[in-house]
Amino acid sequence: MLWVQVVIGAILALALLASMRSIHHLRHRPHRIMSFQYPSPWAYYVHLGFRAAVVGLYIAVLVVETWYLGTKTISYYTVWNFILQGIYYLWAIKYQLSTYGSRNGPTTISRKGAALNGLFDICFANSLLVIVVYWGLLYNPNMRWYSYIQHGGNTLLFLIEFALNGFLTQRTSVVFIALFPAMYAIFIWISNVTWLNGWWPYSFLAMSSPVAPLWYIAVFVGHFVMYGAAYGISLLKAKLLPTCCPVLEKNALPIVATAQGLTIV
């Protein structure tokens, strides 16, 4: 149905344009100066070891899954999220090593740290959505062991990560929520008519039904709902684990990015 494709194309275009416009405005917002420190040196090393172990697990899962599914592996949104989560853990290890002093005292969270926090927000919210969609709509009782890790185990690991890291879900991260699913939808649309030869990894993505646009809208809405859930969990963390949360530095002036560089405002 041509009109269905046109409507879905318009939905994806609007999602991309809205995301890019919001991200552009976000770049010029002042960056609040926050600091974080681990409760003790051993907490720092435990967290670093945890992240390294998770990276090893993620690599093993992706290798095994690719062995079974071949190139079709990359066609699944679950795998896209899993890879994004792996990127987060790798970046988090690099950032943690660069802020080695946080094991003994407060360390200022740089703009890179804030960006890493934003990536965590997206990964966490998406992992919650994957759980709801998979176990609510797509559950397959014959799934292989690695699917349990990708559709639930990873979220449990993210909850542990959230308890250990110095992050809280940022309200500003909401501007990125629609970007990732829009990129995936465009990718899978192109893949469907090329190397996937008309096959859809998820039946609700097929454009042969007049209700298909509603499914795409529901997917975007679901991402925002799960971001809200992640934000709620963040509020609980701030209340229950205050020592694992960032602190606004006293007498610190906010910094904004400009064409000339970073400017104190």
Concise summary:
The chain is mainly alpha-helical.
Structure description:
This protein is mostly helical. It has one domain (2-264). It has seven helices and five strands, in the order H-E-H-H-E-H-H-H-H-E-E-E. It has helices spanning 2-27, 41-69, 77-98, 111-138, 145-164, 179-192, 212-240, and strands at residues 34-36, 107-109, 247-248, 255-258, 261-264. The strands form two sheets. A three-stranded antiparallel beta sheet has the order 2-1-3. It has a two-stranded antiparallel sheet with strand order 4-5. Strand 4 and strand 5 form a beta hairpin. Helix 2 runs antiparallel to helix 5 (145-164). The longest helix has 29 residues, at 41-69. The chain is globular, with a radius of gyration of 20 Å. It starts with a helix and ends with a strand. 27% of the residues are buried. Residues 252-265 have low confidence and may be disordered.
Question: Which keywords apply here?
Answer:
disordered C terminus; mainly alpha; 7 helices; 63% helix; single chain; FAR-17a/AIG1-like protein; 265 residues; 3-stranded antiparallel β-sheet
